[in-house]
Amino acid sequence: MQVQLERVLEQVLARNPGEREFHQAVTEVFESLGPVLERNPQYVDAAVLERLCEPERQIIFRVPWVDDTGQVRINRGFRVEFNSALGPFKGGLRFHPSVYLGIVKFLGFEQVFKNSLTGMPIGGGKGGSDFDPRGRSAGEVMRFCQSFMTELYRHIGEYTDVPAGDIGVGGREIGWLFGQYKRITNRYESGVITGKGVTWGGSLVRTEATGYGTVLFAERMLATRGLSFDGMRVTVSGSGNVAIHAIEKAQALGAHVVACSDSLGYVVDEAGIDLEILRQVREVERLPVAEYAARRSGAHYVASARVWQVDAQVALPCATQNELDENDAKRLVDAGLLAVAEGANMPTTPGAVALLQSAGVLYAPGKAANAGGVATSALEMQQNASRDAWSFEHTEERLAGIMARIHDNCAETAEEYGDPGNYVLGANIAGFTKVADAMLALGVV
Ligand code: NDP
Ligand code: 2IT
């Protein structure tokens, strides 16, 4: 079986040249699948691996828009519809200058397994653009969103493909995207996009869900060793949607969150991050995190460095891919790190993951730990389909139940396959098996 896996992996690498992050994501999943294929040769016979690595559809389009000075700008838009065996394609849109096909494909590939783990009826996809919202006025971002949707609208739909947010795409952008969809199609089709505002078809808890879910997963993982967040020293990378809500939930569980970051540097606040100031700086005024240190006495800012310089017992990477490398991991382990739970997608490099696992650090991969966001998107779709709106308490309870089930499914699968505590193995195998079985049932499509 190892030979089969290597053969398919070689094909995938050769057929998708230069897509470094996609190669990384596929390699990491394949490293877990040997024992599953041993037990299930039918997957090999039906070329499930080959099909899983080839997106069902890839759309690349021009996004023209006019900036505030009247200059015409061109960006590239993407939507990769990866796998719809379990439901309509589902996954976020990322607006960031680093976006190219390899990033969208790694995210879409991960999304397939993540969405499978949620237990909800959603397939996997991802999209975005190399548009850089930083330094752009609200008017420019709105015009960009409208132009982006003017092409995207023909590819999406409640039963086809349901986008949401990711880096650079939050509630504001979802509003502008949905507004344009509604205008073009003349349909108030709430289920076409998630992350909507709660007064116009959104779900309570969706904004908080990824960060909250990551911490709830970590809490359950810590409990397997008799540990809890109470009194735990925590650091978080990023200071966007996922990071802010991870900080909020960790603090609610008694953690001492001492540092967070952005792409320019990090802040340390030994008294504990003041969320009110952080939100004002990042969400309301959209300023760099350095401004937090300027407004908070006792806090200090370190430019051009990673937050992993700060000692922690629990590290929550909530910014971007490959942001915690082997050197960071070694430093943290030497300083007493107990657990890592990924709010971001693929933030820990393969070398760092290996190092954490061999040091006995609890490690939760993003496709399991950050699945609360997309799971709550599926709850939003459920509310849209029934024209209902649930309370915060009820929705959060549903999220907590889903995170507990994902945790236990990963833990039990790892145990079943002879490597208890290996959440990477558990998540990859459990996520894969459900999609693979659905693909077998649906025939060669
Ligand atoms: P936001 O845009 O709200 O925040 C992103 C944060 O990460 C910002 O602090 C940003 O800093 C930082 N960041 C972005 N790119 C880089 C980079 N190249 N290097 C260093 N820092 C960077 O995005 P989200 O919080 O929504 O997303 C964060 C992560 O969580 C992503 O990996 C995303 O895929 C993942 N995720 C998001 C979900 C969601 O529901 N939103 C669901 C599941 C996973 P700056 O402002 O300086 O750019
Ligand atoms: O990476 C992710 O899971 C997301 N950005 C959320 C996707 C969604 O459809 O809610």
Please describe what this structure looks like.
The chain has 445 residues and is α/β, with parallel strands linked by helices. It has three domains: 1-54, no CATH class; 55-191, Leucine Dehydrogenase, chain A, domain 1 (Rossmann fold), CATH 3.40.50.10860; 208-369, 3-Layer(aba) Sandwich (Rossmann fold), CATH 3.40.50. The protein is built from 17 helices and twelve strands. The chain has helices at residues 2-15, 20-39, 41-45, 48-53, 101-118, 138-152, 171-185, 206-223, 241-252, 275-284, 290-295, 326-334, 350-358, 366-369, 372-385, 392-416, 423-442; strands at residues 57-66, 72-83, 89-95, 124-129, 161-164, 233-237, 256-261, 265-268, 300-303, 314-317, 339-341, 362-364. The strands form two sheets. The protein has a seven-stranded mixed β-sheet, sandwiched between helices. A hairpin with a 3-residue loop joins strand 7 (256-261) and strand 8 (265-268). Helix 6 (138-152) packs across helix 7 (171-185) and helix 9 (241-252) packs antiparallel against helix 10. (2Z)-2-iminopentanedioic acid (2IT) binds at residues 90-92, 111, 114, 164, 166, 194, 345, 373-374, 377.
Low-confidence stretches: none
In CATH, the architecture of the largest domain is 3-Layer(aba) Sandwich
CATH homolog superfamily of the largest domain:
NAD(P)-binding Rossmann-like Domain
Which range best describes the helical content: under 10%, 10-25%, 25-40%, 40-55%, 55-70% or over 70%?
40-55%
Q: Domains counted in the coordinates: how many?
A: 3
Distance, first to last CA: 24 Å
Give the bound compounds.
NADPH dihydro-nicotinamide-adenine-dinucleotide phosphate, (2Z)-2-iminopentanedioic acid
Domain Glutamate/phenylalanine/leucine/valine/L-tryptophan dehydrogenase C-terminal: 203-443
GO molecular function: glutamate dehydrogenase (NADP+) activity
Keywords: Oxidoreductase
Subunit structure: Homohexamer.
